[in-house]
Amino acid sequence: MGLSVTTPADRPLPMRFLWFLGPLILSNVLQALGGTLNNVYLGQMLGARAMAAAVSFFPVHMFLLAFVIGLGTGASILVGQARGAGDLDKARQVAGAVIWGGLLLGIAVAAIGGVTAAWLVRWLGTPAEIEGDAVRYASVLMAGLPIFFTSMLAAAVLRGMGDTVTPLRMLVVSCLVSAALTPALIRGWLGLPKLGVSSAAWAQLAATLLALAWLTWHLRRSGHGLALHLLRAHLRPHAPVLRNVVRLGIPTGLFFVTGSLADMALLSLVNRHGVHATAAWGAVNQVIAYVLFPAMSIAIAASVFAAQAIGAGRREDVGRVARVGLLMNLALTGSLALLVALLAPFVVSLFVKDAAVIDLAAQVLRLSVWGSILFGLASVFSGVMRAAGTVRVPTAISLGCLALLLYPLGRLLGGAFGLPFVWLAYPLTYACALLLQAGYYHRIWRRRPIAKLV
User: Residue 84 belongs to what domain range?
Assistant: First the structure.
């Protein structure tokens, strides 16, 4: 198969974007639905306490995965540049070093997590009556980190090659196995042991392992240039490659971590208004997450295509990638945001039934959903610059706006205009980030030379 990939290289750039985006957005949606389904199983088959025990460890788990998401971003950029240059051996070198590094990192974190899981659960303030179940659930997730990390990085490497279909197929395998295995482990069907709350975690681990096995078979069968038997010679630490991956990827991880901390701070303002406000927060977040999927996917696509253009030495194509990414965001994310704003009460009612919560959440959505467009536009600028190795200023802008603006704006607006306007802090913060990213991109970054990273 060589360097041929799923995304057809001979099609116009907008078509290549759409070809790349479709499977990527579906992957995000499928992953979110898989997590929701596991919570439904636990809540319906074991009760609310079981679901609470499982979700209580979610912030720590996402914190750990955030850094691997960042490393995957760095890996996709380097593989994308190698892909653009037509250097398959360099792509294999990056892929081998990244997967090896991710596996070692997963083993190290899993070992530490096995010792600290109980302490982490208590540190999160988990209620005493579910602490035991939460520890058992957390221990399984921590033990599975080497597998989870490897799966995430393998998907990122394939995306760097322009292939989003194979990661989607891998995720379909994982979700189908998890959906069948979770209830079987809860009930002890087919002679399987009853594992209680940890059933969902064990099912997720087994499903990811089977998906990786499928991926190994599929890549070898299809003659893919990054098949495991071709990567074996490169599965080793490669310090220069790993340094570049970390340099490019850590800012993305920090962005997710900073965003989570800022969200928690803003949530503390909302919680003061009672249970209806907190429920509205949860409903709005569920809806906004789906609106953000195309925005985040377009930013990933822009970064990959810009990296491929840089690797191929086509400097003029980088600007075209940025323009197409911006237009895609306006069209796709904008259309979805408009639809959500128009159908806000109906959309919210899919998640909650309380009339007061629906009314508040619908009002909030009409105010805040537009921030998704601004977030997507800013992410395109930062993603394109990151593809060329420029990380410090775009990262400083993103982290600075989240850390310094989101909570103060929410507090100010909520105090001045009422509870729904707390959420207006999101579009205002993203608007500031967009202005700064666009200003730096047009006035400074575009005038600088771009050098290849691999």
Answer: 1-237
